[in-house]
Amino acid sequence: MIFNLIYRSLRQHALSTLVTAGSIALAAGLLLTVWVVKTQSQVVFAATNSGFDAVLGARGSKLQLVLNAIFHLEASPGNIESKDFEMIRRHPAVKAAIPIALGDNFQGWRIVGTVEQLFADIEPVTGRHYAFASDGRNFKLGAMEAVVGAYAAKQLGWKVGTTFKPYHGLAFDPKAQHDEVYSVVGVLEPTGTPVDRVIWIPLEGVQTMKGHNPLAATELSAVLLQLRAPTAGLMLNNQLNASGGRLTFAYPIGAIVADLFNKISWVDKVLTLVAWLVVAVASASVLVSIYNSMSARARDIAILRALGARRRTIFGAVVGEAAAIGLLGSVAGFAVFAALAIGVAGIIQAQTGVVLEPLKWNPVFWWGPAVFVGLCVLGGMVPALKAYRVPVAETIAPVS
Amino acid sequence: MLLLAAHDLLKAFALPGGGTHRVVDVAEFSLVAGAQLALRGESGSGKTTFLHLIAGILAADGGSITLDGREVATLGEAARDRLRAETIGYIFQTFNLLQGHTVLENVEFGMAFGRGVDRAHAEALLRRVGLGDKLGHFPRQLSTGQQQRVAVARALANRPKLVLADEPTGNLDARNAREALALIREVCRENGAALLLVSHDEGVLGQFEQVQDFAVLNCAVP
Fold first, then answer.
1. Chain B residues with CB inside 8 Å of A397's CB?
2. pLDDT tens for residues B159-187?
3. Does A8 contact B48 at a Cβ distance shorter than 8 Å?
4. Is A230 found in the same domain as A164?
């Protein structure tokens, strides 16, 4: 009977039901988005290493080095000499060493110089080698050829055969275009890593581009490293960071990125707090919405009581109505979440190349709606108590 | 067979300035199953309170009410609610229909808290009171006479043993009042329900074979 009462009351108050459920949906969508993007980005960013264990670069911040060499964000802390590269390449603890050099862009898309080995030997994601879209291939050292990340190629509309002239610097300046013409020979399949946002050319292309400092022609921006064992990372960390003061060895990459998230955790906290406040306000709107209608409903409640409805039935029906509004709002909240989260994930991919999967299962998908419904039930208790106390005899009929 | 008996029934209300005002003081009252009895009483004489006590809507301050073999006065509120849902039909002067619900739903609510909804029975009752073509209408779409017919059908929906009618024709014109009263009496008879009606209208009272003066029954000073 309670379900019947709830259904009929929701139907009778359809407009306020929809408006209140809509506010719950917006709040739920916001909270789910903040929560999922927060938790997933922490995990995904910390796991994003493009297949490398460590980065060797010029003396400076480890975080800046990782952001620059792995995420292709920020400026380079400086260059290292080719002898440093040779030193680390020959180190017995190093399994693979991939040099990178940067300093150019194409309309804001970063151009990075590297070696063929990157696309031939390295797995950007464990168990998956780089793959080229149909008719594409790796560039050849010494050639004016380029391999383009999937996202950059899609955004630029590039395919095999496209030619382009790089622009000097990491920031796009239309007046700073180089004369060299590069030809795209391969477009990478998506990897879901920052590699997707980069235009890759042979290392010496960046080093010897006209207009670059000839004295720095053998310098590198960083060396991406695969190690033979985790203990090697600790050993090199002690060896390189403690001595000399000329180099920075950033290891382990995941911990350095996690440290970034720790530093900006206050942003997460503020966003989460705001989202919870929105949910609390939306839940309060359930209370206000039902409570305000209680005076108008008092007569109906008295009639139902006169027909034999027990107080607890009426109480349960009002609480159930609040819960039903919470449930409706939560369900609709998933639609809001899907739209918001896909948009946010798109922005993150555009800015960093990291691909989030916001619709992948997250525990908040069950406890979030449970909390929303619980808060609505709490909000519904107040009007339910008012309904519980409706005096039947006084409300139902004039006494004669 | 005795259906309803009241003995030394007392009910008083607290006054705003302190003290109490005794509204009902009925030494003895009884009604046999299937009987139709009218109580004559002026406004403010306590007859609605008397019906509320019988229906268990109000708890008595003293005395006893036995309905269908069960003592009403000593029952807890939830048990009185259940007894009312299963045993009593109530017709109000102001109809007290649920305005947001259809005619059929109103009648279904009359049975919902007792033995459960029986849609076929609800539809049959509405056809019986001449509203078979108004099942999906809302009360506001009906005339006052038709609304009282819905109230009659609802009062009979839970197959009650006793129907309480409080000035059931008070809001109707003479013709509708006559028709409504006849309908109430017929439908109660057909369903084997006893009828206890209170009214101050001599035109209504005149149609009953059994009429008692509530002022005689009730020793409380109005």
1. 48, 92-94, 96, 166
2. 999 999 999 988 888 888 888 899 999 98
3. no
4. yes
Does this model's pTM top 0.80? My answer is no
Distance CA A21, CA B8 (A): 53
Two structure tokens written together for A241: 């960071």
What domains are defined for chain B?
A: 35-59+76-211 (3.40.50.300)
**Can you read off the two tokens belonging to residue A371?**
């909390």
Question: CA of A10: which chain B residue's CA is closest?
Answer: B100
Same-domain check for residues A27 and A150: no
Tokens of B205: 């009272």
What secondary structure, in 3-state letters, does A190-249 show? Answer: CCCCHHHHCEEEEHHHHHCCCCCCHHHCCCECEEEEEECCHHHHHHHHHHHHHCCCCEEE
Tell me the chain A residues in contact with residue B98 when contact means C-beta distances shorter than 8 Å.
300, 303-304
Q: Within this chain, do residues A42 and A80 fall inside the same structural domain, yes or no? A: no
Q: What strands, in cross-sheet order, belong to the sheet with B20-32?
A: B20-32, B2-14, B62-67, B70-71
Give the structural domain span for A361. Answer: 2-46+264-396
Signed CA dihedral, B109, B111, B115, B117: sign only: negative
Q: How many CB pairs under 8 A join A and B?
A: 89
Give B4-62 pLDDT, tens digit per residue.
999 999 999 988 888 888 999 999 999 999 999 999 988 888 999 999 999 999 999 99
Query: CB A307 to CB B90 under 8 A?
Result: yes
Same domain for A85 and A41: no
Pick the residue from chain B with its C-alpha nearest to A301: B98
* Structure tokens given for B147: 């609304």
CA triple A226-A227-A230, angle to 5 deg = 130
Q: Which helix (H) or strand (E) holds B36?
A: strand B36-40
Same domain as A109, residue A74:
yes
Question: Which residues in chain A touch residue B77, judged by CB atoms under 8 angstroms apart?
Answer: 310-311
Which tokens hold the place of A168?
A: 């000097």
